Amino acid sequence: MALGTLAPPRPPRAAPRPARSSRSRRRAGYLMMAPAFLHMLLWTGLPLVAAVFLAFTSYDILSAPEFVGLANFTEMFGDPVFRRAVLNTVVYAIFTVPVAMGIALVIAVLLNGNVRGRRLFRTAVFLPQVTATIAVALVWLWIYNPRGGLLNAVLSFFGVAGPNWLSSTTWALPAVIAVGVWQGIGMKMLIYLAALQNLPPELYEAASVDGASKVRQFFTITVPLLRPATFFVFVTSVIGAFQSFDQIYVLTDGGPAHSTTMITYEVYKSAFREFRMGYACAQSLVLFAILIALTLINRRVIGGDRVTA
User: Fold this and answer.
1) Which residues are CB-contacts of 277 (< 8 A; sequence separation ≥ 6)?
2) Dist CA 110 CA 108 (whole Å)
3) How far is CA 66 from CA 53, 54, 55, 74, in A?
4) Sign of the Cα pseudo-torsion (147, 150, 155, 158, in order)
5) H or E segment and range at residue 227
6) Cα–Cα distance measured from residue 180 to residue 101, given in angstroms and rounded to the nearest whole number
7) Can you name the residues that pair with 67 across neighbouring β-strands?
8) Predicted TM-score of the model (pTM)
């Protein structure tokens, strides 16, 4: 072919349309999500719907549910034991959550530095979190034992006569709160430690150059940057505090004189001791509503989705 009659170059091929590829990826994603979704629907969604329905019925497992309207809620709010359970749960959460969060944050800051043996200390702090709550409660049952228990033995060494911790209406709830604080530090420390390791070191270097002390850096840099982690820790801690049951069941069984009974313990007692499933479902809905309200309030106050420095 002559040079003057060369054919023009072919235009480049058009890029394949991404629509088909995106649709196939979306279908693959839905397919991989299906088992988890079905599991959640079967073990969370259906029980939740059933609990809402049974909350307005009188149901004892043996006979068919009988619709009673708001009778369960009316009885619940007029029950002094349930009101005491709500008060005890609120007091338990007020003391365990902030105290454990504060201690965990301080420990996380200390163990985030170049501390000798920090891996051993991290393991020791986190160990109660992965220990069975029943085993932990049995150990504390021995510690609180008025005869031969560790706590009263230490107090007697200093000439102080320790009380009967778990049988006293004055000391039973503080004793349970101490167990909750001790066991809850580990997970909170781990979350704060992970958040601290992601903070930009340039801010601390600049603050050091400006002459800011470690304490001032903690309150002006660390605490504001940990706001998302604090929001997550607070929400999960409040939910855990309001669902406390194992240590109550082992240590005090809700006593003495209902001084340590919690909402979850009252739900258990109504469902599995009195076989009043409808009443227990109504109590569960009240607990669910309280947790939702506290989560929304905390989100507005702390602002978990905002990071400010």
Assistant:
1) 54, 59, 60, 61, 271
2) 5
3) 11, 9, 11, 16
4) positive
5) helix 227-242
6) 12
7) 57
8) 0.83
- Alpha helices, DSSP H, located in 112-158: 118-130, 133-143, 150-157
Candidate from 7-21, 106-120, 230-244, 258-272 with smallest mean pLDDT: 7-21
* Banded pLDDT at 307 (limits 50, 70, 90): very low
pLDDT digits (tens, 9 = 90+) for 80-127: 999 999 999 999 999 999 999 999 999 999 888 777 888 898 888 888
* Beta partners for residue 58, in sequence order: 66
Q: SS3 for 58? A: strand
Q: How far apart are CA 299 and CA 305, in angstroms?
A: 8
Comparing CA positions, the residue from 288, 292, 280, 274 lying closest to residue 82 is 280
Pairing label, strands 57-58, 66-67: antiparallel
Comparing CA positions, the residue from 76, 120, 106, 66 lying closest to residue 192 is: 106
Residue 57 backbone phi and psi in degrees, to 5 = -130, 165
Q: Which two tokens stand for residue 231?
A: 């929001």
Q: Which residues contact 150 (CB under 8 A, 6 or more apart)?
A: 142, 143
Torsion region of 236: left, alpha or beta (phi above 0 gives left; psi -120 to 50 gives alpha):
alpha
- Report the C-alpha gap between 143 and 120 in whole angstroms: 24
